[in-house]
Amino acid sequence: MGREVVQPPQQQQTVPYTVEQLVAVNPYNPDILPDLENYVNEQVSSQTYSLDANLCLLRLYQFEPERMSTQIVARILVKALMAMPAPDFSLCLFLIPERVQMEEQFKTLIVLSHYLETGRFRQFWDEAAKSRHIVEAVPGFEQAIQAYAIHVLSLTYQKVPRPVLAEAINIEGLSLDKFLEHQVANCGWILEKGHGRGQLIVLPRSEFNHPELKKNNADGIPFDHIARIFPILG
């Protein structure tokens, strides 16, 4: 059998830790703050995402307010918007002081979040166009919001009129034609002619837009179980 080699102490100290390990081992150590800030920028450049690391950084900013970078905080909130329908934006906002939230860029992000949560996509895209310097700093933002808009539509519609889809994802004309071609080829969408010259997009069937597909067996209570309760209540 091989012999286990133990590294000298000086070598052990040079072993790099991942950000996730730093967060897990000592999330309240202010010494890891620069690593977490760099990790936010890495998430932006590599189009990855770590809610736990970002929440940890926001908590450290609460203890070290003089070290807070509003640019980093804005990027965290934009990434959280991109994670919708997950409630990440609200979780992050809870850790940001109110005085910081009152800054113009954060008020804008809060308004954008409200528009997304209420499905007001036209207002969202109009507001986002006024604040391109905030949202365009994070690659993939537009595509993530388009995916969220499609998710919302799929919860409501079996067939979506072309103008409704165009407004929700902020794509029109030939660009929308190419987008639809891709969705038909790769995602199971179907194109139909609606009334007049309108076009309808048939979305894939799911338990949300076709309630009859929903499986209730696991969540439902068998009738015989309910029947046993009645004598007890009486």
UniProtKB/TrEMBL annotation:
One Pfam family from the record: CSN8_PSD8_EIF3K
Top-rank taxon: Eukaryota
InterPro entries: ARM-type_fold, CSN8_PSD8_EIF3K, eIF3k, PCI_dom, Transl_init_fac_sub12_N_euk, WH-like_DNA-bd_sf, WH_DNA-bd_sf
Compartmental location: Cytoplasm
Keyword Ribonucleoprotein in annotation: no
UniProt main location, coarse: cytoplasm
One Gene Ontology MF term: RNA binding
Coiled coil: none
Example GO biological process: regulation of translational initiation
Residues covered by the PCI domain: 49-208
Entry GO CC: eukaryotic 43S preinitiation complex; eukaryotic 48S preinitiation complex; eukaryotic translation initiation factor 3 complex
Keywords, ordered alphabetically: Cytoplasm, Initiation factor, Protein biosynthesis
Matches recorded under SUPFAM superfamilies: ARM repeat, Winged helix' DNA-binding domain
PANTHER family (alphabetical): EUKARYOTIC TRANSLATION INITIATION FACTOR 3 SUBUNIT 11, EUKARYOTIC TRANSLATION INITIATION FACTOR 3 SUBUNIT K
Family: Belongs to the eIF-3 subunit K family.
Subunit (UniProt): Component of the eukaryotic translation initiation factor 3 (eIF-3) complex.
Physiological role: Component of the eukaryotic translation initiation factor 3 (eIF-3) complex, which is involved in protein synthesis of a specialized repertoire of mRNAs and, together with other initiation factors, stimulates binding of mRNA and methionyl-tRNAi to the 40S ribosome. The eIF-3 complex specifically targets and initiates translation of a subset of mRNAs involved in cell proliferation.
Name of the protein in question: Eukaryotic translation initiation factor 3 subunit K
Lineage of producing organism: Eukaryota, Viridiplantae, Streptophyta, Embryophyta, Tracheophyta
